Amino acid sequence: MKIYISADMEGVAGITAEEQTNPIGQPEYEYSCKLMTGEVRAACEGAKAAGADSIVVNDSHWNMRNIIHDELPADVTLIRGSMKPLSMNQGLDETFAAAAFVGYHAPGGTQDAVLDHTYTDATLYEVRINGVICSEARINAGVAGAFGVPIVFVSGDQHACEDARTFMPWAETIAVKHAIGRYAAASLSPTQARAAIKSGIERGIREAANRGAKPVIFEKPITLETTFTYTSKCDIAALMPGCERIGPRTLRYVHNDYMTVFRAFRALMCLGGSVS
Known about the structure:
Elements (H helix, E strand, L loop, with lengths): L1 E6 L10 H4 L7 H21 L4 E6 L17 E3 L18 E7 L19 E6 L2 E2 L2 H11 L4 E7 H10 L4 E10 L2 E4 L2 H17 L1 H4 L10 E7 L2 H7 L6 E2 L4 E6 L2 H15 L4
């Protein structure tokens, strides 16, 4: 059985500040990598306990060079570095039995959620698909769904877990911290968080069929609405063919194929991010 794990950092226990997650000149970042790696290792161990004989981990935070490779189980494949065409979903395909999201966070604009954002808060204010505000989990679950792969586990703060349950009620969710605000939380200890993740992903995989786990599929036509932080970013992103400007900072893109929509989203985000 082949299992895919996409790992972010903001949803890891003990992480509450941008200084902890920024690899550029921040003294706390190195320790944050150890915290992230510990939770990913626990997820790998839980997946193996559930019967996984092949595990692929995609480092999905910032520059995607965070996980300490030699602290993962020796037989786990790690996808590391950027730029990746599928970003947080690189390596996903139809050969996986299930996927898991470790260290995920709530969408931008969520009250009292640790470091809430959607892909990049420097460029994107809000992302909607078919009128629904999207977290990274929802966007990425759509990519897994395009390959026929269900998401069976999510960890993060309580709001990341609540968000996941709204569109994946079958998924096992583990809140490793209770957010008090954007920059504060009451966290489990690293030992407790890792134990909870290990047992949680094992349950999620073992009980997937009985819980009715299924791929996340968006109703067609699929409408992507991307609202940027500044009009200047929208100005440049609007140069992409096929977009309709529906507001000073918002573009609409419609297509029947989700992977085309996702690639459009990536392109719009990169275009918008090219200017201040």
